[in-house]
Design brief:
With 342 residues, this protein is α+β, with helices and mostly antiparallel strands. The protein is 23% helix and 43% strand. The protein contains four helices and 21 strands. Strands 2-11-14-13-12-15 form a six-stranded antiparallel β-barrel. Strands 3-10-8-5 form a four-stranded antiparallel sheet, with no helix packed on it. Helix 2 packs antiparallel against helix 3. The longest helix is centred in the N-terminal third of the chain and has 29 residues. The chain is elongated and about 125 Å long.
């Protein structure tokens, strides 16, 4: 019994000594430090707005005679949309044209007579004024007549019409809306601290709930010169091509703005970072033992963090099992990929 006790105590003492010297390796998961391209970005929420949108209204009263489009149809600038009864206005144009022609002929005669000193300057001026008035009335009546044909103000898509053939349109009555769908405009805001990093020409990507997993690329076109005092943010505008017409004005969107791109950034999994007080450290594996090393962090990405100093390319760091480690502890490394496979 005495001999057995002595053996047990000797084994315990040997185990304690071995543990103190970093023995009995602890299995940890590791990765190798490499460089990769890093895109620093900021996320925001915004709204899609049409570059051009208008509610067309009747500018002259009258009965609707024709509708020249199908709802939802693509139209070009100047295409006819509605025709309103124009009999009275056509008569006014004809009358104004006759008056303009008569006063123009009278002015021509007055000019010839004035050149021959047969009429006074007052008579010549009166003839010219009468002609100008009649021509102005002709132009005014022609402008009114043109309002009886409602046309598309720009390229776009017509919506649902608010009036039908045979209805009487009153002045100011809404008849249909026209919306431009490609491109669209993205309105969003970013924190004022990012103002030095935001500028026209930067790339953005947009996602919407209507199309999960899809992103749509655009470009910042303008940054507001004013800061919103209430939210301490800066309004930003971007152009978003929409050739597929999947997107619609009014959509709530999530915006990702690419601020900068670094080609040789040291990125490590965020699980590798082990905080000690105010310091950030990682466990580096050298010759089967770990050494705790202080690092300086840079940009944070989803699941990753940039290392500005403290690590070199090719070094092996621990990403799982740090709770069991201490300076100089012996470890048995297992690559993260093989650990996931097992």
């Amino acid at each position: 019994m005495l001999i057995a006790r002595i053996l047990i105590l000797s084994l315990c003492a040997a185990a304690t000594f071995a543990f103190a010297q970093g023995g009995f390796p602890t299995t940890v998961e590791t990765v190798q430090v490499t460089t990769s391209t890093m895109q620093a970005s900021v996320r925001a929420v915004g709204t899609l707005i049409a570059e051009a949108a208008a509610v067309l209204r009747a500018e002259v009263p009258g009965q609707v005679l024709e509708v020249h489009f199908a709802e939802g149809q693509r139209v070009r600038k100047g295409d006819r949309l509605f025709s309103i009864e124009a009999t009275v206005l056509e008569a006014e144009v004809n009358e104004a044209r006759a008056n303009a022609e008569r006063s123009t002929a009278a002015f021509e005669r007055a000019r010839e007579m004035y050149a021959k000193k047969l009429i006074s300057a007052n008579d010549y001026d009166a003839a010219q004024a009468n002609m100008n008035v009649d021509v102005a009335r002709l132009l005014s009546s022609q402008a009114k007549l043109s309002k009886t044909t409602i046309r598309a103000p720009f390229d776009g898509y017509v919506g649902l019409r608010e009036i039908n053939i045979g209805d009487y349109a009153t002045v100011g009555q809404a008849v249909v809306d026209v919306v431009q769908l490609d491109p669209l405009r993205v309105e969003f805001s970013v924190p004022e601290t990012l103002l030095p990093k935001i500028s026209a020409g930067q790339a953005i990507s947009v996602s919407v709930d209507a199309y999960p997993g899809e992103t749509f690329d655009g470009t910042i076109t303008a940054v507001s010169p004013r800061i919103d005092v209430a939210g301490h943010s800066v309004a930003t505008r971007a152009s978003l091509p929409n050739p597929s017409l999947k997107l619609r004005p009014g959509f709530f969107v999530r915006v990702n703005v690419t601020l900068a791109e670094k080609a040789d950034a040291l990125l490590v999994p965020e699980e590798a970072i082990w905080p000690i007080g105010q310091d950030k450290t990682v466990y580096v594996v050298i010759d089967g033992k770990v050494h705790q090393r202080k690092v300086i962090l840079g940009e944070r990405l989803p699941g990753q963090v940039e290392i500005l100093s403290g690590l070199e390319v090719g070094e092996t760091i621990v990403v799982a099992g740090q709770m069991k480690l201490f300076e100089g502890a012996a470890v048995q490394t297992q690559d993260v990929a093989s650990a996931a496979g097992s």
